[in-house]
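From the shared-data thread, chain only:
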Amino acid sequence: MSVDREAYSLLEDYMLRCMGDSAHDKEHIYRVLYNGLEIGESEQEVDYDVLIAACLLHDIGRKEQFDNPALCHAMVGGDKAFEFLVGHGFDAEYAEKVRQCIQTHRYRKDREPHTLEGKILFDADKLDASGTVGIARTLMYKGIVSEPLYSMTPDGKVSTGEGDKEPSFFQEYKYKLEGLYSDFYTRRGAQIARKRQRAAAEFYESLYQEVSSSYERGRGQLDKVLQPAAGGEH
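Structure, as tokens:
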């Protein structure tokens, strides 16, 4: 059984029933799918039946991880995808290939993708965390969990986020987003990432300069306003 239009609609409907939070919504799934198809154009002998299903279903375990952070959405999602595919008449060998792609799409040193389709899915998903799209998704997620844009250093300055232990957008950028642009498995994935890297860096630098300069200027102005009148008292 191949992924024709009917099968695609079946997989898409299942994906839509599983998706929840706004940072990992259905549009994220479509972007990963389209990224994957673009990368696939530069590769040879891609099994598109496996790739399309893996891209569509790669995040169907998110709800389980959100409810129980001890779970890995990739592992849960792979098992769910396998059960769904087999339960709807797909061959078990095919369903296992899809499961392996999904279970290796999340960065883990002990669980790296080894198939071409798994590598494409990994890169396609990673691309959606890069550039300004990745920044926008991170900001949406920070809003969902009520985390701030930045934190303050002990001397009262806006922290760059580097080395911060408290979560914030700046901390996430320095801890994760800034270093996303290496270790892609495919040449095309790496090329797309390099194009996006500068835009992301410029956004972060601009935002940091705007908020930090606001504090620097504003505090100086506040000190002037709060100075007691000459010879007088508050």
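DSSP finds ten helices and no strands in the chain.
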